Amino acid sequence: MDRLKKAALLTRLIKRLREEESWCGETHVQKATFFLQRLMQVPLGFDFILYKHGPFSFDLRDELTALRADDLVRLEPQGPYGPRIAATERSKYIEELYSKTLAEYGGRIDFVAKSLGRKGVADLERLATALYITELAGSGASVNERANQMTALKPHIPPEIARDAIEQVDRIIREAQRYLPA
Amino acid sequence: MSRNFHEIRDPIHAFVQMDNDEREVVNSRPFQRLRHVHQLALTYLIYPAATHKRFEHSLGVMELASRVYDVVTHPDNVTEKMKDRLRPLTDSDKLRYWRRTLRMAALCHDIGHLPFSHAAEKELLPEEWDHERLTRELIASEEMQEIWNRITPPLRVEDVVKLAVGPKKAKHLTFNDWETILSEIIVGDAFGVDRMDYLLRDSHHIGVAYGKFDHYRLIDTLRILPMPSCGDDNESSEELALGVEEGGIHSAEALLLARYFMYSQVYCHPVRRIYDIHLTDFLREWLPDARFPTDLQQHLRMTDNEVTAALLDAAHDQKKRGHVHARRIVARDHFKLIYQRNPSDVEINPEAGKAIFEALCDKFGSENFRHDRYHQKSGSSDFPVKMRDGRIVSSLAISQALNTIPVVSVDYVFAERAVFNEAEKYLRQHRDKIIRPKKEEDNG
Fold first, then answer.
1. What does the CA dihedral B177, B384, B232, B378 come to, rounded to 10 degrees?
2. A31, B238, B276, B366: most buried, per Cβ within 10 A?
3. Least CB-CB distance to A80: which of B347, B379, B397?
4. d(CA A172, CA A114)
5. Looking at this predicted complex, what is its ipTM?
């Protein structure tokens, strides 16, 4: 995908996350982008691995840095906490250029923002890991099988929390179907 | 009785110490090959003293890696909660095993580098290959495997690989938290010792002061810390990362400023970048099938020396493959910078260089222009800081300096000297039209 087109999708996602009252730090953007690309099939082309706390893309990290260089996003330091990410005024201009793409994928971005916008960072780490494992395990795997895989990979997640995350992700996957092409 | 410890003089760290097992690695063919791979490719054509090699850099990385390891695993710097998450911290045998593995991984982290380092890596290796994959394969090669097996206790190949290249370049391997933190000691974004050593070493050899920082103070204050919470939840991320104690924040700022200055003024110097491009053009014509070999034996035989000999040969003989590009390098007849990124163009089109390059190629022929685009490859300068009162806060919350370090982004277009004046005139007349991006619908 053309770099500026990707920029338009990412800045729209960041805006929508902020509208849904997300803290919108890097972890939030990483996990929301993972859902957008893998569950909602928006072809952003980032390469995700299972990192310290859930799926993570070094490419996406580099791209967010590049967007800062282009003044399309900025970091907002917030007291003792990690910084928030915000889309700049200039990002509107890029979004106007790619209005056709945003019309095509806007519904999927809204869905991700609404589903994840109010989640905290620990919740997002678990949900994104649950989606990663669900993809890996295939459609036949039961909730318990996937929860066991999750605790094996991430021993700091207790089994009952892992099960809950898998069930939540199953619900999100079901709801997502109406936004996806048949 | 033979000695088990050896010392090598080093201009950055005074001495690099090693034991017999480490000396075996240093004496291995993959490591000795690094004596013939320049750390900074053709940078010596601009900064004449930049002739240092990956060999001494790798020794320096080993030295710094264990200094960091000793600090962050020191009992005074480890909390009970951390011991619970990172189990090797409670077992002295494991601590010794991982220290040794870390030093070996640091030694080997660059053994897969191609001739002239990064200069031509992306274009001249097959899909799915990069120097880190060659590094992984060499660490797992029979020659190195024999060394790992002779050590007591033997080192697991997979552990050396993980720490040497990190999760980004070993996607097929699963890292636990401990392994991730150790790999960060070598290849980490903010405090990786690979970067610490090359900034110090490159600035020393090049003769610039702005790559230097107080690495002694910085290393003394490094700690494994939880990432700061986000303020959106009572439950914060449980991610652990390398951070600093409050007293080390100014040294950390100095490191990240050094990185900015070295990238913007040395690594991204336009003449250095165009020499890399001419070298890539030469290699594409000179190498069989326009690709570096991925066979390990062939890789071990190919260094900067073989390429330099071919380059000099081709530069003086019109019939040799790659003559045109070789001559440009040897005769210093490189393409000239005709366009570089600037704030007013970025406001109109962040990819203005690409638009200009394509327009100039259409008008004057693609053989006369080259485009070079590079973005800084790392995240923000956000890392955990342990305050004197025990709170963990984001570095960006307490350091104004870190918030204002610009992101390095390069967008250059270079022109053949014969068409330069005409192309420059054309650009002056049409620049605004060229760089204005079209709306998606208009593209058809």
1. -80
2. A31
3. B397
4. 11
5. 0.89
**In the prediction, which pLDDT does B127 show?**
86
Alpha carbon separation from A60 to A44, A47, A129, B175, B249 (Å, rounded): 9, 8, 17, 20, 27
Whether B230 and chain A come into contact, CB under 8 Å, resolves to yes
Which residue spans within B341-408 are E strands per DSSP? 369-375, 384-386, 392-394
In a domain? residue B113: yes
Same domain for B277 and B255?
no
Shared domain check, B317 and B240: no
Tens-place pLDDT, residues B149-199: 999 999 999 999 999 999 999 988 889 889 999 999 999 988 999 999 999
Q: What is the pLDDT of residue B123?
A: 82
| Residue that the structure tokens 């799915």 belong to | B128
Name the DSSP class of B155.
P
Q: How big is chain A by its Cα radius of gyration, in Å?
A: 16
Above 70 in pLDDT, residue A115? yes
B85 and B148 together in one domain: yes
Residues B52 and B77 in one domain: yes
Span B92-130, pLDDT tens digits: 999 999 999 999 999 999 999 999 986 667 789 988 899
Residue B359 belongs to domain spanning: 271-375+410-443
Residue B227's closest chain A neighbor by CA? A82
pLDDT band per the 50, 70, 90 thresholds, residue B444: very low
Tokens of B167: 């999760």
Q: Are residues B249 and B296 in the same domain?
A: no
**Residues A165/A143, Cβ–Cβ less than 8 Å:** no
Euclidean distance between CA atoms A17 and A28, whole angstroms:
9
As a whole number of angstroms, the distance between CA A138 and CA A116 comes to 23
Q: Among A10, A23, A121, which would you mutate to test the B interface (most chain B Cβ atoms within 10 Å of its Cβ)?
A: A121
Question: What are the Cα distances from residue B71, in Å, to A24, B90, B317, B434?
Answer: 33, 15, 56, 55
Tokens of B61: 């990385």
